[in-house]
Amino acid sequence: MSLLQIDQLRVTFQTRHGAVTALDGVSLSLNAGETLAVVGESGCGKSITALSVMGLISSPPGRIAGGAVRLAGEDLTHASEARLRAVRGAEVAMIFQEPMTSLNPVLTVGDQIAEAILLHQDMTRSEAWTQAVALLDRVGIPSAAARAKDYPHQLSGGMRQRVMIAMAVSCRPKVLIADEPTTALDVTVQAQIFDLLNEMQRDFGVAIMLITHDMGAVSEMADRVAVMYAGRVIESGAADDVLDAARHPYTRGLIGCIPSVDHGGALAEIPGVVPPLHLLGAGCAFAERCAHVREGCRLARPELQGGAHSVACFGAQEGWV
Amino acid sequence: MSLMQVRDLRVEFPLPRPRPFAPRPVLQAVRGVSFDVAEGRALGIVGESGSGKTTTAMAAIRLQEAASGQVLFEGTDLLGLDAAQMRARRRDIQLIFQDPYSSLNPRARVGDIVREPLDLLGVGSVSERGARVRDLFAKVGLREDQMALFPHQFSGGQRQRISIARALAPGPKLLVCDEPVSALDVAIQAQILNLLARLKAELGLAYLFISHDLGVVRHVCDEVAVMYLGQIVERAPVGDLFARAQHPYTQALLAAAPSLGRRRSRGFKRPLSLRGDPASPSAPPPGCAFAARCPKAAAVCRDVPPALDGAGHQVACHFPG
Amino acid sequence: MTQAAPETPTREAWRMFRRNIPALMGLVILTGIVAAVLWGALVYQGDPFEIVWAPHEPPGVTPEFPLGTDYLGRNIVAGLLAGGGPTLAVGAVAALITMGIGIALGALAGYFGGWVDTLLMRVTEFFQVLPALLFAMVLVTLFSPSLWTIALAIGVVSWPQTARLTRAEFLRIKELEYVTAARAIGAQDGRIMWRVILPNAAPPLIVSATLTVGVAILFEAGLSFLGLGDPNVMSWGLMIGANREYILDAWWPVTFPGLAIFLTVLSVSLVGDGLNDAFNPKLRSR
Q: Touching check for B240 and chain A: CB below 8 Å?
């Protein structure tokens, strides 16, 4: 059984266009010690998926309308707020895109990590401080004892993200959700953070759910991939299978349109834009942008099928894409 | 033929005095940069945040004050022009910004935004201007009936198209693109990059293309300059740079760029991850700016700044290759 | 994305304004007040200072004086009708002076920065630390207490707030890329300041302007209350000031002008809010 199992999760949001379905039956699984990349463009629901795991969907306007999020068998969608607080940080930790706004600007970084430790572990303040310094050292912050007394604004973006990672792993969580952890960082710093995440995984055995829009990052980091589009998983499988033999036209488009350092020339294009959620019809959400679209695609929504490398596309399932 | 020649451009920002009456320290954002942009060709300037790439471009087109240097545009030194002469020159040099949300006046209709440069220049009659605006809308892939809308009614990619149409309106010879796709989703990035490549070919435009993403540069540019801490460390034709990067910093950038060819599943291990952050531009080191992070650094690197040398493929390094 | 047919900006703003119920109510009240004041000026020919009846006649007793009489036996309806014009005029003129000085100086300081900013902000601070009421009193006593000097005095003491607000907005907006874009297409400083930045800085300024109208009316009432108003011109403030001592004996001579001031200030700020929303394109497509 998987460590984290998301089953047919449905999340709706109340908007001025009425209730829209932000997640429409999302199923994902994350095994102990592996990295699952959840990839898609903005608005596809990847961040909402992460927030639902943490029980952080703000309600209202959000609502978990169905499905389950099981952490080691326990359904978190029905857990009490007290239980969720115990889970957050201790069993599932999260790091965000912008480390500046996710750190408290008026506390030193050492204090913030010690705080996080004290929240979930029974120890004295000075023990927690010592452990915080050790963690900062562990995530590669030079002269950690001195840096622990710094405030977030005194650190560079990369250092701040290291602090976030130190805080995230401070209670030895089983699952680490990284929501676009390097989008705000320079490419050389991004590489450092990726290396660090891999190291943390090796040393602490944490399973990583990497939310990203970058297929290159997926390739370097992921064991398995789930591609999301308009609130659904449209393709999922082992990283190699999805990257080398993508079945969904959208996945192929995403791979083809990456400006790569390996080759020049014109890029493949996916025409149009992601449709707004409140305007989704009955058919496949990608139909309007798809080069292979047939009449049937606009009538019903394809389900995710196909075992280890599954796809939600009639064409791929019936063999005409 | 050379359209723009930038020679030994320097930009300094005064910093607050550390104490009253102390000399005002300066931040050397651009430290003696020289490059040429040929007619109808695209020069990419690549670097991480703080490298001075945007400041260089802004100073070259007089949207940022330069401390010293020369910017010859068709033989005229732009830095020597008075305000009125410079305004007259602006029609030849136009600009596309990174953030499609803040680069369009939210209170103006997009048709008027594109028309404004024509009105300012007094191009043609009113009906001719109208025709030109319609023509520009078609050229960048927007519909004529969208002219009466306001910027907030468009998606990021469409806004970037509007921005491009506005830049094309006066019929410029040089387009400065400041990270034009980095705020866009990857599928939309490809659309905009392809549009820029097409316009360059159709209109014979020259680009000064600022980006942090080597992959993006590879798809649009003919030549690339890599900047580090206010200086160009390597400059080469695009194919050369990607095939035979000579500077250790360029090599590190290439190694750090995520790529589909690198698979976790195949035991990918990054060859070279840069440690640390760049030195501070307010106190640049006496020798090579990159020495502190460079795996090849020797004593000479810390003392003697390397000059940008070579014909065709230039590199500023004591130990290139 | 809704496709709006081309429509003139004014028409579109009016369409938006009509949908805003509080703003529409404000407009109705304000129109009512202005109409009453105009009607009063045309129709009511009597002297509002004339003693016409016994003092402190309560409202609703004598049909000729529906709102009663004040401590001297003057007709309160006549006072309200005659005093409305000067009150509104003082409010509007003071607000115009405030906005004029405040926006001009704030815009110059915020846009050009550097020594221009330092100089103008020092001047602003100088005016800001002056106790407004005392300074206005000095101005009014130095010159004759006419309506114009009162409006001028109020304007001169109220503009620093607007200047600071304008400067802050200009500082923020001038860094946005569409301003750089305007420079890149060769627009001159004046055009950038007034055509690009000012419309985007308008929302808080419009709100501030409507508040200033209210503040100016209250200020005029305050000066009149202290006996520094123009004694020859009836105004709502003068009515309150003159009758304040007898408020425990008769509530109506102060309450009705007070109510008039309250309704005017309220309706002006409702209309201001409505205008602000109506000219904001982001709210239009809703």
A: no
pLDDT tens-digit profile of B39-70?
Answer: 999 999 999 888 999 999 999 999 999 999 99
Residue B266 lies in a domain: no
The total number of residues written for chain C in this structure: 286
Distance of CA C65 to the CA centre of its chain: 30
d(CA B10, CA A307): 60
Distance of alpha carbon A142 from alpha carbon A159, whole angstroms: 10
Domains in chain A, CATH or no CATH each: 4-91+173-318 (3.40.50.300)
User: Is B215 within 8 Å of A259 when comparing Cβ atoms?
Assistant: yes
**Residues C90-142: pLDDT tens digits?**
888 999 999 999 999 999 999 998 899 999 999 999 888 888 788 888 888 88
CATH code (residue B60): 3.40.50.300
Amino acid code (one letter) for B257: A
ipTM entry:
0.82
- Residue A291 is classified by DSSP as T
Q: Provide the edge-to-edge strand list for the sheet that holds B76-77.
A: B26-38, B2-14, B68-73, B76-77
DSSP string, B227-291: EETTEEEEEEEHHHHHHS--SHHHHHHHHHS--TT--TTTT---S----S-PPPTTS--SS-TTG
Return the amino acid letter for A213: H
Cα–Cα dist A293/A286, whole Å = 9
Which residues have CB under 8 Å from A11's CB, separation 6+?
A: A21, A22, A23, A45, A48, A52, A57, A62, A63, A64, A65
- CATH numbers and ranges of domains, chain C: 19-281 (1.10.3720.10)
Distance from CA of B117 to the nearest CA of C (A): 6
Integer Cα distance of A38 and A27 in angstroms: 11
By DSSP bridging, strand B93-96 and strand B76-77 are unpaired
Give the pLDDT confidence score for residue C284 in this predicted structure: 58
Q: How far apart are CA B209 and CA B66, in angstroms?
A: 19
What distance in Å separates the CA atoms of residue C79 and residue C64, rounded to the nearest whole number?
Answer: 14
Number of domains within chain B: 1
**CB < 8 Å from A in window 170-189 of B:** 185-189
Instruction: Give which of B258, B205, B69 is closest to A182, Cα–Cα.
Output: B258
Chain B hits for A35, Cβ within 8 Å: 264
- Select from B168, B165, B193 the least CA-distant residue to B109: B165
Q: Assess if residue B321 is contained within a domain.
A: no
Distance CA A317, CA B17 (A): 68
B213 touches A: beta carbon within 8 Å: yes
Chain C: closest CA distance from residue B271 (Å): 39
* Interchain contact, B262 vs A220, CB within 8 Å: yes
Closest Cα to residue A227, out of A217, A235, A237, A219?
A235
Residues of C whose CB is below 8 A from B136 = none
Tell me the chain A residues in contact with residue B218 when contact means C-beta distances shorter than 8 Å: 259-261, 263-264
Neighbours of B302 (CB within 10 A): 14
Domain that holds residue B57: 2-257+271-315
Mean pLDDT calculated for residue range A264-274: 82
CB of B91 within 8 Å of a chain C CB? The answer is yes
The partner residue sitting opposite B256, judged by closest CB among A35, A190, A271, is A190
- Nearest-by-CA chain B residue for C180: B63
Which B positions 220-239 lie with beta carbon below 8 A of chain A?
A: 238-239
Q: What is the value of pTM for the model shown? A: 0.83
* Identity of the residue in B194, B253, B263 whose CB atom sits nearest the CB atom of A267: B194
Give the side-chain half-sphere CA count within 13 A for C272: 20
Q: Which residues of C9-18 are buried (b: 16+ CB within 10 A; e: fewer)?
A: eeebbeebbe
